[in-house]
Design brief:
Strands 1, 2, 3, 4 and 5 form a 5-stranded parallel β-sheet that branches. The chain is globular. It contains 4 helices and 5 strands; from the N terminus they run ββαβαβαβα. About 25% of the residues lie in helices and about 15% in strands. The chain has a domain at about 20-130. The two termini are about 30 Å apart. The longest helix is centred in the middle third of the chain and has 17 residues, at about 60-75.
Length: about 180
């Protein structure tokens, strides 16, 4: 469903929202999530933090997210964001809205039901493949780019994804 933004041209302009679609912290449970507060801006900010890619298992990423969620919730400058409404509320409060992303589908371990699992943990974007080949397709560092596999193309359709296609994006890799 598309949301429209009301025209507020009659009043003072609100500073624009800063949107960082893919930022990184060290992929360690003990990483300092407080570093995300550097994104605080008037008008609000949203960051999507990478939580894993090909070398990480579903178990690795689940543990990392659990640790980071706990510490994000304890940091008064940060707010976990599951929706646009959460992003807007964080912006009004001057906090940084935080969600997670997977750099590729490797952490799904070939199991599409993991999409729902990671969605429930706060992952909102995922590339099918990126640097190296995985079950979804070729990677931009591979000698030969074989593209996406037919299985992955089907899995990205809204009716086939366990998350119902709600907010998980399945764009082609970008190199």
């Amino acid at each position: 469903m598309m949301r429209t933004v009301p025209n507020e041209s009659s009043g003072p302009r609100r500073p624009p929202l800063l949107w960082e679609q893919h930022c990184c912290l060290p992929l360690e449970r003990c990483a300092d999530v407080g570093e995300l507060a550097r994104y605080r801006r008037p008008g609000g900010s949203f960051v999507s933090v990478n939580v894993g890619y090909v070398p990480h298992s579903a178990e690795d990423v689940t543990g990392l997210i659990a640790s980071w969620r706990q510490r994000i919730a304890a940091d008064e400058r940060l707010r976990l964001a599951a929706s646009v409404d959460d992003v807007e509320a964080a912006g009004r409060a001057g906090d940084v809205a935080v969600a997670f992303d997977l750099e590729d589908s490797g952490p799904l371990d070939g199991q599409l039901d993991q999409v729902r699992h990671f969605y429930d943990l706060g992952v909102r974007t995922m590339l099918p493949s990126y640097n190296n080949r995985n079950a979804a397709g070729g990677g931009c560092l591979d000698e030969v780019d074989e593209g996406l596999t037919a299985n992955r193309a089907r899995s990205c359709s809204p009716t086939a994804t366990p998350a119902g296609g709600r907010s998980i994006s399945c764009p082609r890799k970008v190199c």
